[in-house]
């Protein structure tokens, strides 16, 4: 759980640094930014989980575990970006 707490805080900080308007309202560019941030944060979560909770002692094991989480971040980020775009087009999620 610690890994995902760190990852969610980092995601929020990165999106705030880039700007919510750019992240959520700029079409493909914003979607790619969100997918990139999601991938990065999921990879960091995987590294934290691998080091502290799974007891991996080698860099290869930690990087493999973090890489698998990063793949999940790509998938989750793509689905999330698609859903945000769909909700905005249908005016269910209004832009500011």
Please describe the topology of this protein.
Blueprint: H1 2-18, H2 20-25, H3 28-52, H4 59-89
In short:
The protein contains 4 helices and no strands. The model has no long low-confidence stretch (mean pLDDT 90).
Low-confidence stretches: none
Radius of gyration (CA) equals: 15 Å
Helix content: over 70%
Number of beta-strand segments: 0
Shape: elongated
Q: In what range is the share of β-strand residues?
A: under 5%
| Count of helical regions | 4
The biggest beta sheet, please?
A: none
What gap, in angstroms, lies between the N and C termini?
Answer: 32 Å
Structural class: mainly alpha
Mean residue pLDDT? 90
Reading the helices and strands in chain order gives: HHHH
Q: What report would you give on this structure?
A:
- The chain is mainly alpha-helical.
- Helix content is 82%, strand content 0%.
- The chain is built from 4 helices and no strands.
- The protein has helices at residues 2-18, 20-25, 28-52, 59-89.
- α1 (2-18) packs antiparallel against α3 (28-52) and α3 runs antiparallel to α4 (59-89).
- The longest helix is centred in the last third of the chain and has 31 residues, at 59-89.
- It is elongated, with a radius of gyration of 15 Å.
Summary tags:
4 helices, 96 residues, mainly alpha, single chain, 82% helix
């Amino acid at each position: 759980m610690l890994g995902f707490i760190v990852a969610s805080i980092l995601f929020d900080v990165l999106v705030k640094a880039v700007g919510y308007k750019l992240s959520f309202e700029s079409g493909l560019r914003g979607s790619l930014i969100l997918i990139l941030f999601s991938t990065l944060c999921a990879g960091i979560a995987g590294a934290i989980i691998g080091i502290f909770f799974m007891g991996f002692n080698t860099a290869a094991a930690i990087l493999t575990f973090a890489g698998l989480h990063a793949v999940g971040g790509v998938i989750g980020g793509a689905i999330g970006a698609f859903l945000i775009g769909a909700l905005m087009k249908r005016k269910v999620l209004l832009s500011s």
